[in-house]
Every structure is written in structure tokens, then in C-alpha cells.
Amino acid sequence: MAESLAGLDTFPKLLMHHARVRAERPAIREKDLGIWQTWSWGRFANEVRSLACGLAAQGFKRGDHLAIIGDNRPRVYAAMCAAQCLGGIPVPLYQDAVATEMAFPIQNAAIAYALAEDQEQVDKLFEILPQCPTLAHIYYDEPRGLRHYDQPQLMSCDRLLELGAASQRRDPAFLETEIAKGAGSDTAAMFFTSGTTGAAKGVVLTHHSLIDRALAAAQMEGLTDADVVLAYLPPAWIGQNIFSYAQPFVTGYCICCPESPETVMSDMRDIGPTYYFAPPRVFEALLTQVSIRMEDASALKRSLYRYFMEVARRVGGNLLDGKSVGALDRLMYRLGDALVYGPLRNVLGMSRVRVAYTAGEAIGPDLFRFYRSLGINLKQLYGSTETSVFVCVQPNGQVKADTVGPAVKGVELSFTPERELLIRSPGLFKEYYKNPEATAASKDAQGWFHTGDAGYFDADGHLKIIDRVKDVGKLADGSLFAPKYLENKLKFFPFIKEAVAFGHGRDRVCAFINMDMEAVGNWAEKRGMPYSGYVDLASRDEVYGLVRECIEKVNADLAAEPEVAASQIHRFLILHKQLEADDGELTRTSKVRRLHVGEKYAALVDALYAGKDIVHVEAQVRYEDGRTGSISANLKIRDAKTFPPAAARKAA
Amino acid sequence: MAGESNTRAGRIGDVILAVEGVSLAFGGVKALNAISFDVREHEVRAIIGPNGAGKSSMLNVINGVYHPQEGTIRYLGREYHDMDPHQVAVSGIARTFQNLALFKGMSVLDNIMSGRNLKMHSNILLQALRIGPALREEIEHREVVEGIIDFLEIQAYRKSQVGQLPYGLQKRVDLARALAMEPRILLLDEPMAGMNLEEKQDMCRFILDANDHFGTTIVLIEHDMSVVMDISDRVVVLDYGRKIGDGTPDEVRANQAVIDAYLGVTH
After folding, report:
1. Global ipTM
2. 3 state SS for A296-363
3. Interface mutation target, options A125, A259, A267, A269, chain B, most CBs of B under 10 Å
4. Mean pLDDT of B156-179
């Protein structure tokens, strides 16, 4: 990074810098009507100027909040920067949230201005308007279906841009002055945390925090303006915001917006991103797809695939880490690259990936090694909304499946006696919005952020996270119970989509299992097993047998580790429905809300511990259109074999 | 949405299609018996009725597949007799089919492009070679088709073979192909048949959006009363080839003859 970014302490200043230095370079691409349309930095900056002037003409002032609800679109990102130009604060909200979930952020920050992508989002805002009387201006990007809406709050983005262009002509110097007024210590954006742990909180981040972290990681990985990123996760999530807003603004690279959520895979093949982020579940889904397609391939292809994947498993990771590998293995790997790995990377859209990250939850070691063995530089990182993402990143050549790497430059780490991780970093958040108690509870006087995560350093100084501190419980006999640790082990099996383990204060561990419809469905099809749907398949004895095998493997694993040997799973049941964010069972980032699930299905938990073989359940479900209904089923409960703990190595 | 009905009602124009005293018989079976109704520009007009009521026959008469023995059809003020389906299509009336009539082995894109067939003017040799004016023309048509693909949210299936898509999506492709003709009147033959609730809701949204966005006049046949009542401006009810009701959904719902036909009545 040769160019100097000195003095560019806010995102609007960075944008204007790129518009000068690389006006013709691509800033954003979007696939529209089947063709990739390119917005250069120059065009992007012009759009931001017009939007900002338009907002100013509408009375948007320094310190005002702009709610932004939409998928990855150039205008969504332009709106974020436009608000920042005026000293305002963009508040991106999850576009797939139901209306009631949007009410809290809007009330919390008394938001008056909102930008909604389309009719769907506009409808949601009008639905909650009675609870959110402050909302006076709603701008929409996509006019389809909105022709007959005559609410006074509503205005199209195109109209807003016209207003902006007109006011810019009247007073061309206005915006430059506004941008110059901004300082690094100003609030850049507010992100509402998904609320795994209770009510949502608005995390206030400054320009300085976000720019500092974005830059530190970009320097570490050597990102340049030639890099390309596919923006396909919700912009309201800090991670996507870092990769598709903060980092392009510090490096000048180009982000690409997919045509629709369903076309992400083929768009990724079109684009060939060089820098990629996906949570483990995406990598898992991709691998499942590959495996399923391989099973349907011809015998020759299958055996080629099996042979060369074995070669890759043996040497691929070592090659990527720059370790020494024998000449024959090198040759075989090169052959495999021509026949299998190269084409496979191409199908995955990862041919050009230089750096790929995964984070958010633990990734299965087999899954992790699979991608690395293909020559894809997949690494883990650790961070959160409160830390502007980058806390720990695995440097090239020091990648391990079960750690998240050492601290990134500028970050200090420490632990409480309870093993809670503490962080001090320039990327730390300023506060939780209008919530001084929560701020005080998580950020102490010395500036340490209490993460709530339990972990420790391994021998190489890499951070290892085991669970949330508050979730680490004890069985009735006092032995350690880390539910997430168990659940993760279970979820690493392709047939198990989610698992919920119970055991705190109990004499033994029991679990709910959510089967993976795709994998189990395929498995059933292969065996010619007819089934009528999810509920039916989930209740089959064959499927119970399949799941029991997985659990018993986990139990055998656990038995070998003295600290957790007592956490072997004794009984389980397979849930009759997928756990859904719409039903409040998962967070918007697809993490299980264990307490809520435990309460909601208390009868099932009781049945597990009461030793029953069958239990009747009736559950409310919320359909995608917002209506509710109920489904009922009889669930079987089965035992799993447990193993005696490995020889009493537990001397301490 | 309260304001919507007012503004929509304001858009509805003059009668563009009038069916007057149409009767159709197959041998001794009277499929349609002196049916009269009209369709106004920009409205959503539904034809409903129990099985065998003559709904599809009515559509086939408008479409030029059947020629009625009695009665006239007036389209844009002109009476038409003995027009074949091709001529009807050229005059701006498109349709979809109850049992789908897509080219199953072709891609979604090609199927929808085939809907532009009537609008292609360059000669077949140039088209086959894709040179000169034919290429320019194809690009223009492709743009219209891409607009429809975007409109019906089927971008992910552009290159998929139609026969391999789920039924609900095939229905959407069928609608896309009809829309590609940029018709003035769109005849939909049971667009919601065989769909689950979510697919039905999607289809309703697309029909209303097409009506709103392109101003297309819609005539739809539907079995499912509840769906029709939600999206139609006016409804014709047929039973055993006779018209037994005609009016707004509320009027039709209150009509005793309609209630009897649907719920059955002891004679």
C-alpha cells in the first residue's frame, strides 16, 4: 500500500480520496438484467454526493440516524456513506428481520430517516409505523409495486437524488465543508447485535475504530485495489460491513453484489473473488453439495476424486503452509491439481481466492482441512461487532483447525480467573447506544472489553475459544459441562444440522438433534426409503439409528478427554421441525438460542430426563409470510451408548 | 394498502373486450350457453366456476382455439370471427396454460425468448447466423426478456432446463413467456393450480405486479375462490355453461345462485 491515507480519518474523506486517485477503477459491481454493471469510484462518489445533498435538503442533520434496510446493492452502501458525509450515523438493519424486530432499533435511536430497498421492506416499516412515530422519511430504491402507495413519508431514491443534484448546483461547496467537519472520533455507524444473549443493543463504532482495524488486517494480508470481494451476507452484519465497506474504503478494492440471493453461487463463479469470507455453515453447505454431486458422478470420476482427495489430504495443507513435501507427492499433487482440485476450485468459484476467512463459530476440522487441501488459503479469525471484527487472525503458514490465531497488531488480550477473554484494541466500540449499564458491564475502567467468551492460549500463543463463559455449566456431580463444545462436535457430522445439549445441574447430558434435510434426504433416497416430508423422515427408526451412530462416535471422542468425559450424551431425540430464526429459536446469524429452545420445549427436556420413550409435541411455527400455525408430532426418544472414561489420567 | 383500491379503480379504462351472447356446443353438449360479459382495460377479471362449468372453453373461445356457433366477440371495438390463435396473439392477447405447454428440453431463457417470436422481424437466415440486424434485434429482445426474468425473480434459473424445474417455477416461466409478448390482455388458465400456499401468494403478487407495472389487462380462470376474490376487480361466475353471476367480489360472494353452485343445493 504505497499511497498515503494520512489525514483521511473518516469514510467520506477516504471515498473522495479514491474518487480522485482511482476515479475510473471499479468500486462496486452489480449484476443487473444478467450483465455485470460497474460503478467506478468516480460514479460511486457522485452518487454519494447527490444522496447526501438530497438528505440534507430533506433536513437530515449532523448526529441524525439513517436506518438502512436492504440487501447488498450499490445504493445501500452509497446511502451509508451519504449519511456519514453529513455527520450522520447509518444504522443498517437485517433485511430478513420481521417487522417487529425492526421496531426496537428505530425506537431506540428515535430514527426519523430510513432507506428501504423495496416494497417488502417498505411494508414492514409501515407495519411498525404506529410504534415508531418518529419515522418521518422513508426512501425506497426499487419502485416496483409501490406505485399506488400514497403515504406522505414515502419518496423514491431517484427523487431524492434529483433533489440532491439540484441543491448541489445551488451550493456546490456545501458538501465539501460538511465532509471536512467530520473527525475520526465521530460515530461512523451503529450495528444492532443479534441478541444471542437477550435484548438487542446498538453498538456504536467510530470512524477511527473501523478504519484502524480494516487497515491493520488489510496490511497483514497485503490487500490492494486489485482485490475483488463478493458481498453476499447481510450488510447489517458487521463482518459484511467490514469486507464490503470499511476495507474497500481503505484499500480501494472492488465489491460485487449478486443478482439475487439464489444466484450467489453462479455469480461467484462469474466474478472469481480474491478475498472471501463465509461462516462455517456456508463452507459446509458447499462441501455437502460437492459430495452429493460426486456420488452421482460416473465410477471413473468417483475413483479419481477419491484417490486425489486422499493425496490432497496428505500433502495439500503442508504445501499451502510451505512445509517440505517429497518430490513424488509434489508431482501427484500437481497432477491432482490439473484433474481434480483446479476444476473443483473453479466450480466453487474459488479459483482466484488468495485469502479466505471463516469465523462466527467453530469449524469442523475435516471441513477446514478439506478446503486447505484444495489449495484454498482458508483461515480463521476471531472478532465481534464490539471489536470492529479483527482481534485474532491466523497468519499465513500458521494455520490450525482448532484455534483462531494470535492477536492482530494493536490488540492486547488477557483473561479473567474464570477464563473470560478480555480485549483492549483501537477497534473497540465507543458504547452501547443509550445503555450506559450495559456499556459499563462489558467495558471496564482500564478499557478492557469483557467478551463473555471462555478460552485460553495454546502452546504457540494462538487463542482457543471453547464456549461462552455463562454457558459453561456443571453437571450435578460438579464436572465441567460446555454445551457448545458438544454441539459443535455433533454438528460436524453432515447428517446433523443443529444440536442442543442440556446438562447443567442435571445428572447426565441429553440432546435435541435437528437433522440435515438435504443430507438425510439424500441418504434415504439412496436406500429407496420413501418418506412424506420432514416430520415423517425425522421420526424414522433408520434415521434415529444414523444419528445414534454419530452420537456414539462423539461419546467415544469425549471419553478420551478426561475433562469432558462426563459430558457424554445419554439420550436424544430428533426434533420434528428445523430450528428457525423466525420462531426465535436461532439468532439472525443462525446460532442456537439454547435457553429459549429449552424453555419452549420444556416438555421435551422433561421427557428426556424422565426416561420416556415417546413424547407428544405441539409447536407454534411462524411462516415466512408472518402468519402463525402449529404442527404436532409424536417424537421418539432413544438412548445412546456411552463409554467408560479413558484410563484415570486425571491425576490433577 | 387502503389507498390502493381507489387509485387502481381510477386506472381502469373502457371496455376493450366484450363477449356477447356466445354459445359453444360440441355435438349435443352445450359447453357455453349465451354468455355475455365484458373486460375493461387494466382490470383483473376472473372467470370462476365449479369443474366443467365451461371456464376453459370460454378462454379458448377468446383465444381463437374454438369458434362459437353463436354470438360475437368484440376486441378494441372490432368484432372478430374465425380468427386463429396466431392472429389473436398478434393482436395482443397472450395466454398461459393450465397444464403448461413449455418446451421442456429448452432453457428458461430460450422458452421466454420464444415468447418474443411474434416480434422478431429479421429473416430466418440472418437469425440462424446471428449477424447484422438479427444480432441487434436479438440483443433488444434479450433485454426485454431479462427485464421479465428480473420481474418474476427467476434469475437463478435462467440457464436451467425447464423440464427439471419444480412445478411452481414452471408456472412462473409460462407466465414469463406470455409476458414476453407484451400483451394487452393476458389470459391465465388456472395459474394457481397445483401450488402450495406460498407459491400461490407469490403468483398473486406477480399477477398484481404485472397488472400494475405493465398495465396488462388480466383475465384469469381459477378454481380456488378465495384467491380470486382477493385479487380480482370483477368476477364472472359460470355453472354448466351458463353465467350465474357477474360483479365485484363482494357482490358475487353475496349472490345466492353462486353460493348454491359452489356449496350444492337440494332441488
Report:
1. 0.80
2. CCCHHHHHHHHHHHHHHHHHHHHHHCCCCCCHHHHHHHHHHHHHHHHHHHHHHCCCCCCEEEECCCCC
3. A259
4. 93
